[in-house]
Design goal:
Elements (H helix, E strand, L loop, with lengths): L4 E5 L20 E6 L10 H6 L4 E6 L16 H13 L6 E6 L1 H15 L6 E5 L18 H10 L11 H19 L12 E6 L21 E6 L9 H11 L14 E4 L6
Parallel strand pairs: 2-3, 2-4, 4-5, 5-6, 6-7
Antiparallel strand pairs: 1-3, 7-8
């Protein structure tokens, strides 16, 4: 597996029914490709590992400056990250798959989808979560230019950092470097001239303090395929709670049912051709 992707879920477990110790891997039928929030490690999607069945593989982006790549300098632009992510993803065993990105990961997921289309390896669905559509570019004052103290206070406010870590610079210094780099990549990102033909599912939380929920329907402008929406509660990081993870996974993976009973979309699927 490339350093750009970490395999979890089925790809990291023993086959069901195997004896003690590592067993033969069961070939998955589907793959979920996940991209976490700014500064996020692959472990951000740990709740997803628990709700996906054994025959669904989950690969999570592992960008420079975090996880096993903590000592690598993080990248501050979207393009080189997408180039490396798409090349590495194309090298994996072919499987039908869906892409899901959360916050900054939505930007990467959208551009990754466009790159995979160019390689004639498109996903079946792109899910974008907790990030306004590209027709609303970031505007100053930019978060990546805040002081360390200001940035930490912002992370506490949106639920991305425990208040108890505010005084632990030794623990968060490297993570803060990756967060700032991702924010710069997101805030300097420009909407492309052409969108995608892949259907888009736009996801958000009505109580998200970062994203204006009413803007999420404008992700429909980025696709000429189908479009649908679903909303939740739980703040900016709602996607990582097990119940919400299960509900969204049921929308991404064919044949998968939400054990709690997924809430219906806030609006019916829109299968009209998108306009840019």
């Amino acid at each position: 597996m490339s350093g750009w992707w970490m395999t979890v879920g089925n790809g990291a477990r023993r086959a069901v029914g195997a004896g003690p110790g590592p067993g033969p891997r069961r070939r998955p039928r589907f793959r979920v490709v996940a991209l976490p929030h700014a500064g996020g490690w692959p472990s951000a999607f740990r709740s997803w590992w628990q709700v996906l069945p054994d025959d669904v593989e989950c690969v999570v982006a592992q960008l420079p400056g975090r996880g096993a790549r903590i000592n690598e300098p993080p990248l501050t632009r979207v393009e080189p990250q997408v180039d490396a992510l798409s090349r590495s993803l194309a090298e994996l065993e072919p499987l039908p798959y869906a892409v899901i990105g959360h916050s900054f990961g939505s930007v990467l997921g959208y551009e990754l989808t466009r790159a995979m289309e160019q390689k004639e390896l498109p996903p079946a669905l792109l899910a974008v979560s907790a990030r306004q559509p590209p027709c609303f570019p970031s505007e100053p004052p930019f978060a990546h230019l805040r002081s360390d103290t200001e940035l930490l206070e912002h992370l506490v406010d949106i639920g991305g950092l425990s208040p108890g870590l505010m005084d632990r610079a030794d623990l968060i210094r490297l993570s803060l470097r990756a967060i700032r780099a991702d924010l710069e990549a997101m805030e300097t990102y420009q909407r492309p001239w052409a969108g995608t033909r892949v259907p888009i599912l736009a996801l958000s939380a009505v109580d998200d303090p970062v994203v204006i929920d009413d803007r999420m329907h404008l992700w429909s402008l980025e696709t000429s395929g189908g479009f649908s929406r679903q909303t939740f509660t739980g703040g900016h990081f709602y996607l990582y709670t097990p119940a919400n993870a299960a509900a969204v996974a049921a929308r991404l993976v064919p044949g998968l049912r939400d054990p709690a009973g997924a809430s219906p979309p806030t609006s019916p699927p829109d299968d009209r051709v998108g306009h840019r």
